[in-house]
Amino acid sequence: MLKKRLIGVITVKDGLAVQSIGYRRYLPLGKPWCIAENLDRWGADEILVLSIDRTEKNIGPDYKLLSSLAKAKLTTPLIYGGGISNKNEANKVIHAGADRICLDALLHERPRLVREIADVLGVQAIIGALPLSKIGDGVQWYNYRTKKSGKFTDELIKLFSDGMMSEALIIDWKNEGRLNSFDDSIIKNVPFNVPQIVFGGISEQSQMNKLLACGSVSAISVGNFLNYKEHAVQKIRLSLSKQNIRSALFESD
Amino acid sequence: MLNNLELKYCKRCLYSTAHPLGLTLDGEGVCSGCRIHEEKDTLDWDERFEKLKALVEPYKCNTGKNYDCIVPVSGGVDSYFIVHTVKNILKLNPLLVTYNNYWNTPLGIKNLANLRIKFNCDILYQNINPISVKKITRSTLRRFGSVYWHCIAGQTVFPVQTSITSRIPLIIWGGHQGIEQVGMFSHEHEVEMTRRYRKDHDLMGFEADDLLSIFDTIQEEDIWQYRYPSDADMNEVGVRGIYLSNYVRWDPKEQHETMIDQFGYRTTQFDRTFDCYDFVDCFNYMNLHDLLKLYKHGYSKVTDHATREIRHNRITRNQGLALVKKYEQSEIKYIDHFCNWISIKPHSLQWMMDAHRNPKYWSESSFRKWNFNGVSKQRIEVGSGRDVVDPSFIVTDDDRFDFTITNYITIGKGYL
């Protein structure tokens, strides 16, 4: 049985790693490569770097950032998201050192291009990011550029149902950055069956246990909270020792 | 500059997005540091202090065979307030640890001696082989324009090493610079000491092993004392470093004045800032180190001090800017002390320093004539001479660092 994963998330804005709170408030953290290097040493299963301002500014992927991450000689698989708008850019991101890519705006605006990227990179390299919130009886995805929520389109559902992405990054965007606040009813209302990486307000052992027990959840991801304490990744692993995840490792000399 | 942003200024304080720790502005143009500072007036600090009491309780050594915690100290900054809080209020038995940076002032030596005597604490001094310290200082000055790397590396690693060797898990620090200056975390995040923060911010991205290079003379025997302990060793002892400023409403001016009054902390005037309390223990912090900060980042310590005072509502922003303009370009002192110590000629030192002037803030109009266009010059507001106010800092010792001393006190047992 495949183990479930613990993913460390680094949110990057204007080249600076930040704490992101509810998709609207940002606190500075430091150098993305330094945080990635630390997550690598702590033994995260994957590192997800999200450059959140690249698409909005229409400035393409952050190759400078990817170059700095490459210099950090990470051994942990790297996922990159931000500013990817076509298959050439997706390809360049992989050549710059990312193992997988994460797409958000493109899923909604140009789903045809997602299929093209999948043809080039393979679906295993593509994750679809879905910032969601519970509205009424269902969930709606949040367009961070227009600041509006909308229903899933048939085209989007088909994209996932056709297996064009290996996993969906389910983000509780309203609770992002808030301790112990992930709304787990969101994951039950996603209208397609794709392995889910959950993110946004996940900080406590009880939450993680509950989420990892869900069959649809393949990984939990944590961002801000990993920066508050030493050995945060190992401490999560120790607290989840009964779950199907890797055990904690502490680097020795 | 850490980030890709164009230079933008906070509407309340004197910081810009060029702050080396990183700074964000919100939709109202107010910086993350000012926003987090607002918590100082909204949080229930009595409740937070009760949290601190509960946090430290399990670390009390009931057998009396070991210390309860480690407190890193010096002859300046917030040492008195931290030890006072730990020993007199939390009723812990701390082991004080101090890294000797070799640039000690007579005032710093006096303050440290008075600290251990008044608070009746044991203290450990770490003296690294000065030949290695000088090699490291030459290298860090040349490579990244810092003479202070060894001081910060030593101050931040010696307590952690002592925690492991003496098996005292709890380390208690004072203020968290990232929170105080740029609002990196909320106080409620209760952030703790991490190796990542140390490397990222304190050490500018360079740990001890990053100094080793085939193009340099530094060897492993020079840097091993600055190595951070392994994760396995840290975990085995359960090392944990907490910051008092997450549990106490942090106000360095008020705290220092209480310490002057109650415990005889001694202060002096500086040429490059109005704050008389912070770095009285070091010849170089408010001189050579401060000038390098101005060269690299386009602002100096007086901007940090003025911003802090603006946030505490003790001066206005224009008054703060006027203070910055008054002090920022003051000549530095004690260059001969440094040149003698490190065996370098003053013009060679200046040549190395000039290599680190940030072209965003400095332009060379003619040979060795530099024009400054730093953060204070780029601001639209005018803090003029009329705005200069006396920020009312208490000076206990008028003789600065004692000009009769022509060299650093490299080892000072202490006298009162």
Could you please describe the fold and organization of this structure?
The complex is a heterodimer of chains A (253) and B (416). Chain A has helices spanning 32-42, 63-71, 87-95, 105-109, 111-121, 154-161, 185-188, 205-212, 232-239; strands spanning 5-13, 16-21, 25-30, 46-51, 78-81, 100-103, 126-135, 138-143, 148-150, 167-172, 196-199, 217-222. In chain A, strand 4, helix 2 and strand 5 (78-81) form a beta-alpha-beta unit. In chain A, helix 1 (32-42) crosses helix 2 and helix 3 packs parallel to helix 5 (111-121). With 253 residues, chain A is of the alpha/beta class. The relative contact order of chain A is 0.16. Chain A has a single domain, classed as Aldolase class I (TIM Barrel, Alpha-Beta Barrel). The mean pLDDT of chain A is 96. By secondary structure, chain B is mainly alpha-helical. Chain B has a domain at 42-246: Rossmann fold. Chain B has 17 helices and seven strands. Chain B has helices spanning 32-38, 45-56, 79-89, 106-118, 130-144, 149-165, 177-182, 195-202, 220-223, 231-237, 252-263, 285-297, 301-311, 317-327, 335-342, 346-354, 375-378; strands at 69-72, 94-99, 122-126, 170-173, 240-243, 362-366, 369-372. In chain B, strands 1-2-3 form a three-stranded parallel β-sheet. In chain B, strands 4-5 form a two-stranded parallel sheet. In chain B, strand 2 (94-99), helix 4 and strand 3 form a beta-alpha-beta unit. The longest helix of chain B has 17 residues, at 149-165. The termini of chain B are far apart. The model of chain B has no long low-confidence stretch (mean pLDDT 93). The chains are: A alpha/beta (253), B mainly alpha (416). At the A-B interface, strand 2, strand 3 and helix 1 of A face helix 8 and helix 10 of B.
